Amino acid sequence: MSTDIKYSIIFGNDHKNPLGALQSLGQVGVHSIAVCWGSHTGTLESSKYLKKIYFGKTAEDCIKILLDIVPDGEHAVITPCCDEAAITIDKHREELSSKYYFGYSTKYSFEELSDKGLQTKLAKEAGLDTPEFYTIMSINDIPENPPYPCIIKPLIAMRGSKGDLKVCKDKAELIQNVEEALPHNYGLILQRYIDKEHEILIECCRFTNGEFYAPAIVKNELDRLYPPEVGLSALHEVIPFENEQFKQKIGNLLSLMGYVGLISVEFARSKSTGKYYFFEFNIRNDGYNPCMTKTGANINFYYVCDMLKIPFQTHDSKHAFVVSEVRHLQLLAHKKITFSEWRKDIKKSIGFTWKYKDDKKPFYVMIRHAISGTVKAHIKKIFRK
User: Fold this and answer.
1) What is the pLDDT of residues 205-218, one digit of tens each?
2) What is the DSSP secondary structure assignment for residue 193, as one 8-state letter?
3) Residue 357, SS3 per DSSP
C-alpha cells in the first residue's frame, strides 16, 4: 500500500514534532521530504526515513520550495507540524491546490480557528465542558468580578509564548500580568483556573467522508511535566478511547469546525468536579503522535491515505506507557524526579517516543542536544552568580 505514496511532505521546524510524523510514516515504508525553516538542528536528517530536506528563511519562503519540489502532474500530501505551518499552507491553499492535499475547514480560515475564544465557543456548542472565559484586548476588558484564581494566556498561540501563561490569585496580580503580556500579544484569554488532577490529549483525524477517528487518550500526570507546571509531559499513558458519549461531543466539535485532517484536542480533569474541561485544539500534527504509532494506531498514515484516496484500514490502540526521552532526562537532570522514579518509568513503558529499532540515531542526537543544552544552562547560571 505504501508504495502508492510517492510524495509525502513534512512541513515545520527541524525538531521533535516533525520527526514523529516522519518516523510514523516510515514504519509503513513511506519516506518523506521535509520542508523547514528556523534552526538547522540535524534532527530530521538523522532519520533513515528522510528522503531530502529543504530550508527556507521563513514559513512563507517555503511556499515557493513546496511548489518547486513536486513536478507538475504529481500530487503530494503535506503534514503540517506546527501552528505556523498549518496557517501558512491554508493561506496559500489556492496556489498549492494543483499539487498538494492537506487539512482544511469548510467554515473558517485556520487563522480564525487559532483564536482561543472561538475554540472555546465552538467547544461549548459541541456539548463539551468549558471553563468560564473572557477575551482581553485591552486592560479595560478585564471583567469587574473575574473568577479567582484565574489563568491568562495568549489568544493566538503562535503570537505569544508559554511565558505569557500566568495564574493570577487576585486583581493586582491579574492587572500586572495583563499589562506585561498585552503589548506583545494580539490579545489574551482569561479563564477560570481548573484545579487539575491530570491532563489528557486526544489525537484525532477527521476523514474526507465526514467520519472521524480517535483511537486513544494520552493521559499526562502533572508531576511529569517539564518545565514543571507549564510544560509538556515526559511520561504518557495511552488509554483506548472507549467513552462513546465523550467521543461524540468531539465529533460534534469537528463538525462545527467544518474540519478535515489531523487535529488534537486538550482537556484537564478537575479534582473538585471530576469533569474534563476543554482547553484548546491544535489543527495540525501533534507532538504526541508517536504515542498512537507506538500503541498500534498509525494516525499519520491514515491521514495521508485518506488525502490521496488510497484504501486503508484503521487499528485500535493498546493500553501502554511511553516515555518522552528528552523531557524525562531533563526532569532527572533538574532533580524534579529521583533516579529511582526515572528508572521505574522506563521499566514500565513500552519504549521511548522517538526511538525505533530500525531508526535509533535520532534518539541519540536528541539526547546529545538535551545534555548540551543542560550543560550550557548550568554554565550561564554560574556566570550570572
Assistant:
1) 999 999 999 999 99
2) P
3) coil
